[in-house]
Write a structure and sequence with these properties.
The chain is of the alpha+beta class. Helix content is 53%, strand content 19%. The strands form three sheets. Strands 1, 2, 3, 4 and 5 form a five-stranded antiparallel sheet that branches. Strand 4 (195-197) and strand 5 (200-210) form a beta hairpin.
Amino acid sequence: MTGIFIFSAEEIIRQIKFSCQMPDIIEAIATRKIITDAADKAGLKVDNAELQQAADNLRLANKLIKVEDTWTWLQKNYLSLDEFKELAQINLLSAKLANHLFAKQVESFFFEHQLDYAASVTYEVVLDDEDLAWELFYALQENEISFQYIARQYIQEIELRRAGGYCGIRHRKDFRPEIAACVFAAHAPQILKPIVTQKGVHLIWVEEIIQPQLNEPLRLKILKDLFYTWIKQQLEEVNIVVQFELMHQGKNNVSIQPSAVSYQQS
């Protein structure tokens, strides 16, 4: 099929509606408005050097190494250079606002929720037979068999069997509550007594318990989580009004103005 398709703003907005993406779009607009208003109220400013660094970070995040790559990406996303600058600026303002609001709360939040940041390295086999699980447990304690042997014999999933039942590094929230309580009470390395759940009978080898440390990656994660929670609270407290204003231009031509999103405290 050959030819040229010309899509109006009205058609694009209609497709966004048809794809049921409008709520996410509206929330993103409201989020940007909340951030810019809060940053302005807090007196946060962006200088040219910071904006240049934010733009470089944005290019790096999108793997835009060459100038040609950047222009191609802008065209693909229908962004002007000024809009790219605005995008970099809102990213920078978000980071500055998060730091302004919550930087001093990160350490206390970490210590209050320290248990949530502990991690474990575990191997696991889920069995259907509780009697068999206890038999294997006692055999492990007596060093008659290895956990790798159990994994090879009783794990059906090929990749998991090849990995010896290795489940990776997991946090408390990644386990069922009854399993988490046992895992993080273990004195690693340790085989846990069989744990019965709706899924089956779990035989778990706890190789290591990783105690949390407030390093830079975790600090940034906590800061991001606190900021995200704050944004969600702000969205719940505002009344979002969406206006699609149709302007008739001639008998058959209809154009649509950009969405106007205003909000007010409820």
